[in-house]
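Note to self: keep these together.
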Amino acid sequence: MSERTRFVGLDVHAATIAVAVADEDGSVTEQGTIANDPAAVRKLIGGLAAPDTRLKAAYEAGPTGYALHRRLTRSGITCVVVAPSLIPRRPGDRVKTDARDAVTLARLLRSGDLTAVWVPDEAHEALRNLVRARADAKTDETRARHRLSKFLLRQGLRPPAGVRAWTVKYETWLHHLEWIQPADQVVFDDYQATVRAATERVRRLETALMQQATSSPQVRFIAALQALHGIGFLSAVTIVAEVGDLRRFATARQLMAYAGLVPSEHSSGASRHRGQITKTGNGHLRHVLGEAAHHARHVPSPRTAAKQRHDGVPEPLVTLARRSHERLHQRYRHLAGRIGRPKALTAVARELAGFIWALEQLLDDVTVQEVASA
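Structure:
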């Protein structure tokens, strides 16, 4: 007896899961709603499984994460997490319910029209959580500093000439401020304590991130990325955490699209219009590439910091890194006068993604040669 496949669509929420099943004969049945907990999921699997039946499930990526995917995978069920923005939708469909969403997922899974997202393993997701926690802490630190600085501005207080904000001299100036109103002293002390706590939180998370990165399987790629001009440790770890396995991108253009750095396009007939970048995909990766692109404004030169980051990196990777800086600087100089600085930096960020992809491919080749020579 041949094995049949049943396609399970799951509309997942924090407390509930709407279930629908599509069979190979074209029928689709709603299975109702279950609780989003392990016991209910096991009961659902037991009710749908059969000796001659293979189950394949799909649900949308969202705030519930990948726990359900891992639970189903451990049970021997093929599960895909799909990109919500790439789910085909009929223009005339104006009714949305959990049950209808589950039915739609089951039908599209059966027809093969769903686009799956990459699911990291638990260790990689933990590293990404730590990277994002550090980014959140840095945002909170910036907000705390702004609240304090704006409070001082409302009081007509400005640091002495030549004293930059949040330097040692700035901290000394803050320490010697005196307040006439007791309420202002309370507010100032509270804002300052918040800034100190936020700064300590950032330092604590960065220390933990350094420890985790050194024990990561991607430690060689993290070191190789730092050979590229404009990419330091935090940027390298963020790229690795957000992108994951670069080998899943067959071409550099796919990585550029994943970062949302490719132009949008609306063409019909003889009309062709290319607009701003899509900004789809991973926003954290796009931000890091955009920040690194600013370093292409500077003329390439053998700087001490760059030389230090080249230590221990294979020579082919160092050569690629130097060539990338020269190419990106020329690209910026060529485009800045024609299309303006913001668009030029975006173009540079897009090409930087291509060099990152090439660096990973070259690193694989170097690794293979090292294994062969050993």
